[in-house]
Amino acid sequence: MRLRSSLTEDGIDLWRKKYGLPVDLEVRIPRAEERVQNPPRGWLTICEISLRSGFRFPPCEEVIEILRFCAVPISQFTPVGISRLMGLIVFFREHGGRLTLDMFRDWCDVRTDGGKRVEVRSNKIWLDFEARADRRHGNTLFGYIKNFWGIPEAWDTLADRCRRVRGKEREFSPILGFSDPLEPVNQLYNIFAFV
Fold first, then answer.
1. What whole-number distance in Å separates Cα of residue 141 and Cα of residue 162?
2. Average per-residue pLDDT for the chain
3. Cα(20)–Cα(3) distance, rounded to whole angstroms?
4. Beta strands in the chain (DSSP E)
5. Ramachandran region of residue 128, left (φ > 0), alpha (ψ -120 to 50) or beta?
6. How far apart are CA 132 and CA 49, in angstroms?
7. Maximum Cα interatomic distance, the chain, rounded to a whole number of Å
8. How many other C-beta atoms are found inside a 10 Å radius of the C-beta of residue 190?
9. Which of 18-27, 56-65, 162-171 has the lowest mean pLDDT?
10. DSSP code of 162?
11. pLDDT tens, 108-127?
């Protein structure tokens, strides 16, 4: 399904107010022939559903690293995927830590079907999320944002490095200051039960 954008200038102003898009952030409305999967070179597709799910600009360093590693543009992540990723980053920060790419890779099993889909799986069910294939995308409220961060732009076949990366399920309780190794797991499970 290749839908046109229904975003207007008023919609961009609303995004700036509602989601705190910086005034100096370049946002443009897609032309009639442009689609969500193929933004112009140097631009990212951003959907309102991604903003509602917690994605913000400028993106934090953790998000940039993970998107580059997975070779997936932000518009390809499902709303649940964005919410869980942002929640995990916030959780680490609230407990004095930082979710590094090494931690993410150690904790998760990142895999692809060889097409336009990536899955992040963990033995801890609350961390599971995926990026969608373009055929499942039905959101018409999208625009383009100038890409200053080197984040993947177009929906494409995923990088070979993501083909199969097995997580080591490393223990992060000491890093976050928890004496009980199950405490962060329980807290995250409770948080993500509502996502």
1. 29
2. 75
3. 26
4. 27-28, 43-47, 109-112, 118-121, 129-131, 142-146, 164-165
5. beta
6. 13
7. 56
8. 10
9. 162-171
10. G
11. 666 655 555 556 666 554 45
